[in-house]
Amino acid sequence: MSRASAILNVPILTYHDINRKFRVGITRVSPSAFRRQMEWMSDSGYRSVRLSEISGSAVGSQKLFAITLDDAYCDLQTTALPILQQLAFKGTLGVISGYVGRTNDWEARLGGPRLRHLDWQKLKEWVDDGHEVASHGYSHRSLLNLTPEQLDHEIRDSKSEIEHRLGIGVQGFVPPFGRIDDRIAEAVANSGYHYVCLDTPILLTVSDLTALLRHSINRFDTMASFRSKVLLGWNSRANRLGWELQHALSGGTIQARRWFLKENIP
Length: 266
Hints:
Blueprint: E1 2-4, E2 12-15, H1 31-43, E3 47-48, E4 64-70, H2 76-79, H3 81-87, E5 92-95, H4 120-128, E6 132-135, H5 148-166, E7 172-173, H6 182-190, E8 195-198, E9 204-206, E10 210-213, E11 215-216, H7 223-231, H8 237-260
Parallel strand pairs: 2-4, 2-11, 3-4, 4-5, 5-6, 7-8, 8-10
Antiparallel strand pairs: 1-9
């Protein structure tokens, strides 16, 4: 067992739904904003890497960054993929294995349409194009208060399902809602993952597990705030406050699931 901190030297940019559809919430980013952001990264000399390619030694003089696409929505096929291909960028999809090809019924619907997740065939096309797939759990439940059996299902079974369906090895785990503690991190390591994503700079007691710190990009990000997240990251107080707000808002879905689905989650 060892005390491990998150790798901070490679900007990891987190996106969710990239589309033009109106939805209440802050995670949506328009395709035009995504294009501007990616073109700025390219013009600034950044080269994209998949999350599994990041390690403590993956820095040097290179300007590296990573893109994560949580929830793996269908709209990414037409809104994000062409931009990534044009700029020769590769991303990492956070796949909810139990919702592949289905609508996002796990999410609290506060306004706007339901979104559909990529199916297995489309996910295979992303893999064949050089992108990576990580597990985002089996059903997008908060993991903090689950039993060992439930935790094993969300973490281990989701990995096995993705590997079986896509014929690949899954190296990374993306905790739903960014909720994670030492018990969850240990379960991730014991399930054979090599890295886990963090949405806040915390220390975890883990064994043989790389912690990767991310920065969420949302609908309110201007180019100035986007550049701040890339260049300053968690050294910026404004960035920290923005994360705290988004983290608090994500609790709305957790609360709705507790009320309507009778889930015993924190």
